[in-house]
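Run log, item B.
One chain of 403 residues. Sequence copied directly from the ordering sheet:
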Amino acid sequence: MSVTTIRDVGIPLAVLGNKSGFKGVEGNGLVRGDVILDGGCVAGMVPATVHRDQPVILFPKLVDPHCHLDKCHTADRLDGIGGNLTEAIEAQRRDKDNWTGNDIRTRASRGLREYHASGTGLVRSHVDWGDTATPPSAWHVLRELAEERDDITLQLAALTSPLQMAEPEMASDIAKAIPEGHALGMFVFGQQGYETAIRNAFEQAQSRNLLLDFHVDEGLDPALNGLEVIADIALELNHSGPIMCGHAVSLSLRDQTTVGRIADKLARAEIAVTMLPSTNLYLQGRNGGTPKDRGVTLAHELHRAGVRVLLGNDNVRDAFCPVGRHDPLFALELGILSAHLDPPFDRWLPSITTDAAQAMGHAPTYVRGAALPDLLVAQASDLSNLICGASLAPATQLSEVTQ
């Protein structure tokens, strides 16, 4: 195996992995030096022998744990965008008359191209399931796209309702249509019978080795408590598979004692919570004027309790959010602004890389041991520069020097 060196590279400590053998200069969440490659994989670091005029940062490909490729890029044909969650659901429902197989493929392919351009290697897209146990056309189209693309891994989550999942036979039929490696999901919003539906979802996931992903408590109502119910059932059943909960907006209105109790349960159940700032900022807290509530979950409190906090782009140019980008760095930047995710930013970089991959049931890619095709390079001097628009490229473009 050949040993080569890449001169003067910064690596974020949060996504490095084991620091042993990386003898660079540490500062601002980075270790910087000459990277040693052994057989094309990152093996170590020594102090830099020369310094670049333009600093670079080496890090893993990005991950988006929560988006909706079946809905994306429909904003230009929707009338009256703007309203709360209920109004957005109704507007998108009307648009489904346009959802031919070709329409879905065209829009979703555009979204995947945008993810690839942003340096994303792993994506989870939710897919509206409809009213029956039969998979919708969008499910088939996105599964085809997942199989066709070799530049990005697309994982799907069936987005069902408690009305469907509360019926054991229908819950079983839906679960049968989901292959291993993909997720069974549900929109939990305080509906009648939702506890039974959640329990059925857990039982189906356990019997069929499926991942679980819930849209939960997506509203500024402290009475919404699906998040705690999910944690209670996970602990009761001693569930071992990955569980993700998106939104969790109502948590922001709970008192400190209640937040601590729920966060402790989430941590013990190893449930990841995905913060979705773009859509929640757009839909939540509407009052006819300027909103006063931010409408995002409690990232700091969950993080301090040991809960894995993720960030996703959610809806991009559809009835739920007429703007947005298929770019995990954009989600992180918006999370920083909306939830005061202050520096040092290295604590939040895993939310769109290693932590996000692990919450999706994938082995996380750390820089140590990774092959260059699995990494990105940014023309950036620090993590702030990286997050807010640095030029990105495949790490394979870095020039190597033979030892």
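Observations after the first pass:
- The two ends are 12 Å apart (CA to CA).
- Residues 3-60+366-402 form one domain.
Flagged for discussion on Thursday.
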